[in-house]
Every structure is written in C-alpha cells, then in structure tokens.
Design brief:
With 557 residues, this protein is α+β, with helices and mostly antiparallel strands. The chain has 2 domains: 154 residues, Uridine Diphospho-n-acetylenolpyruvylglucosamine Reductase, domain 2; 335 residues, Cytochrome p450 (Orthogonal Bundle), CATH 1.10.630. Strands 1-2-8-5-3 form a 5-stranded mixed sheet, with helices on both faces. It has a 3-stranded antiparallel sheet with strand order 4-12-9. Strand 10 and strand 11 form a beta hairpin. The longest helix is centred in the middle third of the chain and has 32 residues. It is globular, with a radius of gyration of 25 Å. It comes from Cutaneotrichosporon oleaginosum. GO terms for molecular function: heme binding; iron ion binding; monooxygenase activity; oxidoreductase activity, acting on paired donors, with incorporation or reduction of molecular oxygen. This is Putative cytochrome P450.
C-alpha cells in the first residue's frame, strides 16, 4: 500500500491529505460549534446534510414549504444549518422582523450576497449600507414622490398597449410557437387562444417601462429585443442556478477572480447597464444645463423620468458637496433600478395572472370593475378608486411576494425580541434570542404574509374579499404597505413600491380588458422556486427554465 502511495501522482497525494485534514476539521468543528453557540437552546430541525446543511433541502422544495414545516413543528423562530455546519436563525416572528427593519444598520446583507450583487449592479442603493445608503437614498427619494409617480403613468400605458399588440399578433398567428418554451401539447391547441409564456412577455414589458419612465431610454424589448437586456437576463439566470462553483464562491471570496461563466456574465451585465446609465446621465445633464444653466432649484422643471428627478436633486444648490453622488454612483442606480424595476414587478404580474387564471370568477369580476372606467388611459387617481383592483393586487402580493425571504448578518451584539415565545431544547420558554456580531438570520416574508393568526384560517387561499372582512388583518405585521412584508420596511424598504403598484395597475387594466387568461387544458403543475426572486417553474420542464404558460384568449367585443 505504501509503495502504491509512493508511485501516486503528487496531486493525488495532496488531494488525499486535504480530504483527511478537511474531514478531521469538520469532525472537530461540529461539536465545538455546538458547545460555544450562544443560542444553542433554540429549537430546530436536525441538519439535512453533513456538509451543505439545510440548504439543499430548502432549495429542492417549493418556496417556503420547508421553512413553514419548521415553524409548524417548533414555533416561528428556529435555528438551522448553513454550509459547513454554520448555524443561523430562521424566523417569521413579527416582533423580531419589525426589530430588524427598525435597526437596519445592525442587520446587513451578508458579504457573499453583497459581493454577488455588487458584481452585477455595482455599488447602488440595493447593496450599500450605513451613511452611504442614507446619502444615496436622500438624493433618490424625490424621484419616487407620489406626484412624480403619477406623471410616469402615461409611459406605463404606452408599453402596456405595446404588450397588448404583441399578444394580439401571437393569438392571430395559427403557427405561433415560442421556441424558448416547451411545444404545446395537443390538448393545448385550442381555437381562439394560444399558449403563451406570460413571464417572458411581462419581463420585456417591465424592462421597457423602466427604460422609458425611468431614464427616457427606449430598450425596445417588446419590439426587437435588446442585447444589453438579454445579457442582463442571462446573468440573472446564471446567478439563480444552484451550482457547486456558486456555492463555493459564497464561501471563498478568492474565487471571485476566476473567469467563470457566472462571473463573466455578471461583469458584462454591469458594464452594459451602467454604460446605459452613463449615456443617459450625460444626455440629461446637457439638456438640463442648456435649459437652466446655473438657475437650478427645487421648483425648476427638468423632466418627468426618474433619472431627471434624481439629477435635479443631486445638483440642487442646497445639497452639500459631500452628499452629492458622482457619475459612477448615479450610473449604478440605473443598473439597480433596471433590476428592481423589471424583475420584481414582472414577477408580481406573472403570479397575479396565474391567480386570476386559477380563479376565473375573480378575473371576470375584476374585468367588470375595470370596464366602469370610460378612459383607455385613466389617471393614477382613477385607478386608485377601484377597490377590487386594489384587493386583487394586495392579495396576490400577500400570497406571492417577489422576494419571499431575506438573509441578514448582525453587525453588533443584539438581543432579538420575540412576539411568540418558543420552547427551548431544555423545555424553557424563550422570548428573546441573543445574537452576536457575525451571526446570520433569515426572515421569512412569505410566512408572515401567510400567517393564519393575522389573515384568517384561509390565509393560504387566494381570496381578495378578505380585505373587506371586519377584523382582518387581526394584528399588525411589519412592512411598508398593506400590512404585508412584500416591500420590506424601515429605512431599507423598497423605494419604488409606489412605482411598482402603479405599473401593475396600468398593465392589468390593459390586459384584462382585452384578454381572458386561462390555465392550460393539459394542467401542468406550476411550482415556485426561490432564486433571489420567487420564479415560476413547470414541473417536468425544468430544462426550459422559468416560465408561466397560460392560455391567452382575445376578448371579442
């Protein structure tokens, strides 16, 4: 045996030695970590995997299912395992989540997540912290004022009607087939309707909306496609894939320098979107300086798009030089809003159409309400007078939050308060959890939104009428809008939530007045998987990627 080892290649000997050392390290590390863990009394499931912890189990099931099973068994605050035996807290406790939202500087994105987002988007609002976040937010806030959003609604309708025209073309073409999705089964070939991947069409629409309303820039995704957007979407798809290299890259920052496919796509996406940002910034600045020269103040009209309003706020005379954003920071905001203004909103619209296809009576009732407005392009104020539209969107965002959970790292020792005590491993009741600097915690937005104590016994069912019930919601939940956590809360809440709600209303208004959305006769199983954003997948067609196939039927007047 020793002679055989002597003849083995040197790399093989190194591999054997490394494996032995790593195994010995893990055998020592597991019990040591357990002994020194300051919240070891917290209940939780046994680790699913010696090396990868509970991560594979969570990812292999529909979004939220594993975490909900933990909460059902142990209570709304548990401990679980990360990679290499690292511990973390997982909670859907409303008091704990409110505490985290109110103390954003104490709970920040983990380094691995920050590195990934920075590579894709640069140092934009989504992934900066502390004073840098406050400085960026101060400049960006005026662009998202309700009055500013109201002025952007016409752009939303422009793109919503382009989407209508594209869907009409698809439905009129007897040979229509999207090569990016699975071919229609025989039973899905239906007279007067077409199988359409609505997820794809809605992503193209929301990209175009954020381009036009956000930066006065025409991406043209609905008409001809756009190579920058294609690169960005390819990067998102690659980052959302669960790969061994991706897992290792989270653990080993040095792997960031390797020119892997995911790294190259992320770099290309950042360069492309920030390049659009620089181009738009230069053009807008020239226009503003030509119109107003040195006479720029809060009352000066500069344009109605997000970028014009951001530049105006950034150039205001009452803003201290140290608080201004440089052109690189401004360009990174463009990259950030391309992601935040397209992927999440298209996802919300996709799941809303799915819920309406599953509930045709709700769809018809909503259509009848929309038809009460005489205008083909109602104002935001008119859209806001439609109570059932509000309820449907509220219910869809409650059931299907685009970002169903959030991971945070603690920056200083804290005591995490709980609304609902949990029974410790020693039988005592725990009403607060000690956390030390560097600890990780996942907050389950979806589980709060599905909490039966807040939303009633039918909390897992789509029912827009629940908001008209007395006593619903039964108690306060943390969050910026509607007593749900879908837009986060505190000073890290979604800055563009009003923009998203207006866009969803405008697009639904156009689509539901011109089309009926139905489930496929072949009844494929649609499931949700969380890869940063909660994406729809068809069981058995995972090779195609994320999709939401629906039957789209034009409404004949």
């Amino acid at each position: 045996m020793l002679a055989g080892l002597a003849d083995a290649p040197r790399w093989a000997l190194y591999s054997v030695a490394a494996t032995i050392l790593f195994t010995a390290f893990m055998i020592y590390r597991y019990p040591y970590r357990e002994r020194v863990l300051h919240y070891r009394n917290l209940p939780g499931p046994p680790s699913s995997h010696f090396l990868f912890g509970d991560f594979p189990k969570v990812q292999s099931h529909p979004t939220g299912r594993v975490m909900q099973a933990w909460f059902d068994e142990y209570g709304p605050t548990v401990r679980a395992k990360l990679l290499l035996g690292d511990n973390l807290i997982v909670t859907s406790d409303t008091t704990a989540m409110a505490f985290i939202m109110q103390h954003a500087d104490h709970f920040i994105k983990p380094p691995a997540q920050t590195r990934m987002i920075t590579r894709l988007l640069g140092h934009g609002l989504l992934n900066v912290n502390f004073d840098t976040h406050r400085r960026q937010r101060r400049v960006l806030n005026p662009a998202f004022h309700p009055d500013a959003i109201r002025d952007m609604v016409p752009h939303m309708f422009t793109k919503a009607y382009e989407l209508r025209d594209k869907l009409m073309e698809a439905c009129a073409d007897p040979e229509y087939y999207d090569p990016e999705t699975a071919a229609p089964r025989p039973e899905d070939v239906v007279p007067g309707a077409r199988k359409v991947n609505m997820n794809k069409y809605l992503i193209n629409t929301t990209f175009d909306v954020i381009g036009l309303a956000g930066f006065d820039y025409e991406f043209g995704c609905l008409r001809t496609g756009n190579h920058i957007v294609t690169t960005f979407r390819n990067a998102m798809s690659e980052l959302q894939r669960l790969t061994l290299f991706g897992v290792l890259q989270q653990m080993i920052p040095a792997l960031d320098v390797i020119p892997s496919k995911r790294n190259k796509l992320a770099d290309q996406a950042r360069i492309g979107t920030s390049g659009v940002g620089r181009e738009c910034i230069a053009r807008k600045r020239r226009e503003m300086e030509a119109m107003h020269q040195d006479d720029l103040n809060k009352g000066t009209f500069v344009g109605k798009d997000l970028l014009s309003l951001m530049l105006k706020a950034n150039m205001a005379k009452d803003l201290l030089p140290r608080d201004r954003l440089d052109d690189t920071e401004m360009a990174y905001q463009v990259s950030t809003f391309i992601l935040a203004g397209s992927e999440t909103t298209s996802n919300s619209l996709t799941w809303t159409l799915y819920r309406l296809a599953m509930n045709p009576d709700v769809q018809q009732r909503l259509r009848e309400e929309l038809d009460t407005l005489a205008s083909d392009e109602p104002s935001l104020e008119q859209l806001n007078t439609l109570p059932y539209l509000e309820n449907v969107i509220h219910e869809s965002l409650r059931l299907d939050p685009p970002v169903p959970e959030s991971m945070r790292m603690v920056t200083q020792d804290v005591m995490l308060p709980l609304h609902t005590p949990v029974k410790g491993r020693d039988g005592t009741m725990i009403d607060s959890v000690p956390m030390k600097k560097g600890d990780m915690i996942i907050t389950g937005y979806m589980q709060v939104n599905h909490n039966k104590e807040i939303w009633g016994a039918d909390a897992d069912r789509f029912n827009p009428d629940r908001f008209d019930r007395p006593g619903i919601p039964a108690r306060k939940a943390p969050g910026t809008w509607g007593n749900i956590t879908s837009f986060n809360g505190g000073n890290r809440n979604c800055i563009g939530y009003r923009f998203a709600l207006a866009e969803i209303k405008a697009i639904l208004f156009v689509l539901l007045r011109h089309f009926q959305f139905e489930m496929l006769p072949s009844s494929p199983t649609i499931t949700a998987k969380n890869f940063i954003i909660m994406l729809p997948w068809v069981v058995g067609e995972e090779n195609v990627g994320s999709q939401m196939p629906l039957m789209v039927r034009p409404i004949v007047e």
